[in-house]
Amino acid sequence: MNKKILVLMILTLALPLCSSGQTVKATDSVNPELRRTYIGLGVGINYAGVIGVILEQNFGKLSITGGAGLGSWGYKLSGGMRYYTTTPTGVSVVGKGIGVNYALATGLSKVPINLETSSGTKQNVNVQLSPVHLLNLTYFNCWKLGNGTSRFGVELGYSIILNAGDNFKVLDSGVTLSSTSLKTLRIIQPGGLVLGLNFTFGR
Description:
The chain is α+β, with helices and mostly antiparallel strands.
């Protein structure tokens, strides 16, 4: 599985890396006032946490991205790349493209969660949420806001869990979770659908 993911990442990044050198020169000559550095807020599911700060440094059709936020599985840290299908020509980097990034949900050493036990009763159970490593593949679109260099963006995709098995552990001795509670924890752990909204400002 990991080998397939690695090959997919290489293929995804091959095209933008091959063309990035020529793109930067062409874009600079077209509009030297183009803002290439962006910072802002992101919200969503399997994104920069439930809420977080996102960064983007543009080099023509290719951008390097980063993010840090807070989610249901602890802190969320990410870094990756974006490829725009069109060359930026205005004062803002806008348009559609594809993205790939690595993300880490740091987990929580101990968190009480109200869960159903194997006896059928509900109680607060202390659970350890282990760190989760993720590979995110996304499609995005950015639009310019007003006459300035601010942007609004939408990002959709899928987040692949790189860890094997369950990424949580019951800390209370003698407590066994019901199948319903186990399914609930597996659903809320990171991974799956990516849906993100962001507002960024160019510098």
